[in-house]
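Posting this for the archive.
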Amino acid sequence: MGCGLLRIFVAFTLMSVGGCKRSMDESCHPDDLIGLTSFKAGIRIDNSGRLGKWVGRSCCKWEGISCDNTTGRVTQLLLPGFISTDVSILQSQMEGLLPPKITLVTFLEVIDLSELGFIAGNIPSSIGFRLPNLRKLYLLRNKLTGPIPESIGKLSKLEEIVLSENSFSGSLPWSLGNLKNLNRLVLDSNRFSGPVPDSLVNLTSLVALDLHHNYLNGHIPAKIGELQVLEQLDLSENLLGGKIPVSLTNITTVQDINLSVNSLEGEIPFPSYSGQMPFLRFLALHDNHLTGRIPPALGSLVSLQRLYLDNNKLSGTIPSSLGNLSDLRELYLGGNRFSGLIPKAFSKLSQLINLNLSNNLILGLPRQMSSLQNLQILTLSFNPLNFSSIPNWITELPSISKIYMAGCGLGGEIPEFLQGKAIQELDLSSNHLTGSIPSWLGDDLSQLYLLNLSNNALVSKIPDSITGLNELGVLDLHSNRLTGSIIHVFKMGSILPGGLLRYIDLSDNSFSSGIEQIGLGEQYGIEFLNLSHNFLKGRLPTSIGRLERMRSLDLSHNELGFNLPESLGKVRSLERLKLQENRFTGKIPEGYLMLRKLKELDLSDNLLVGQIPNGKPLDDFPKKSYSGNRALCGRPLAPCKP
């Protein structure tokens, strides 16, 4: 008897459960159908084709829609821009408006319209009243505008809000502080203004707070340290002032703090003692107005991997305790007022990859730093080091690839011990270097991408071997005493079509020939070319028209002559053209009217004649752009005589 009753009970239970489940083929709830079809109607372009499959009334079967099996109500709207397939990830786009009627889909728990690119409109003001079950709201990387509605504070189940990279504006609503279940608030790269609401300190479940790249002002909330489970804090690139709250030291879970690019003042207040903030890996306080010394206790942040204190008003000697940061990879202290010697303890920073000490008052570095086996980038520029030459131990660093020692008082010749090193970037500008550019340069430093020897006292010619610098992208030799031909600069080979060379500055020297090579050879991707203030002679070659990426060309103050080349009109990307103080003759070519991006033009003090071609951009420039020529006329100068 008992077994029979049990079978009847089980059968009844199964019938009851089965009766509660809704078929996926059933029609949508009317409100859901109206809300979703309204969304579809607002989208003008959908290159993924997903919305084109939204037909009929069974919306639970539509792509991007999930429903509750019991109620049949729509719970998820998932149409992200990146679509994962079995073989790849595809980027899709939608263009249109987010309609207010989307709030008719009242059982929504997740809305993901992220990275679609062109969804415009506002967050509906009724969102807090109509979507009580909403847990996740992802709208990043669209074109949405307007404020965050005050009603959002009523969405008590919200766990994540990600609205990055839109054009939202207005003040952050105080009601955000009511969202006690929120663990991610990511509002970066918008146009929010006003203060950071003090109510945010009530969000005790918050793990990530990212408000960077907005227009927020005022102070950082004093009690921000009450966010006891916070791991990521990013308030950078705003207009925040005042002091850094001491309460930050109370957050034992914090891993990343970025308060950079603001107007913060006062001293660095943390850590107060050893053992605080034990998991802090990333600390960025750069580009503020911080003063005082580096707290010695900063050396107790044993998990720190990246430390950015550059471009403040910090002073005093650098504490030796920083040598205890055994996991440190990047240390930026440039642009301050640090003085004295770098501590010997820096030699213990065995994981250090990038060290920037530029623009300070540092007098010397210990030789013990040669033990930094992983150091790749060393930036010492503009310190009163007054080395007689580059210290030999710097080139002994086994991983060194980028050396910046501009304005360090270096003297003598370029040292031979640089030969054979795998250096990619070398900046020795604004020193007192003498002698010639070594002939071994192109052979033994073949991996160079950047070479800056400007503002020195180098003499002689550019060596033939420079043609071997096939990976060079930046060449700056301006303001030396170099002579001879520039021809080898334009004969460099390349590992890529068009070449890697983008920036050339040979101005303020005494070069006299080689102009005919411009635009020939493999390097025709040049964007910036300055050969001004030399003694270059001859005709500007028609091959200059091959430099179609060039944005700035300065050949002023030379002895160039003959007609201006018609082919220069093909360089449509040109924004700056300076040819003054030469001996160019003939007319200005009509083709120069095609230089529509031109913002700066100077053809003055040449021997040009005839009518200035009529039209933009040439007649937009002032008279001084054409003055001092033999017989130019027409706008903006006086009319031509019949």
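The chain has a mean pLDDT of 93. The longest helix spans residues 2-20.
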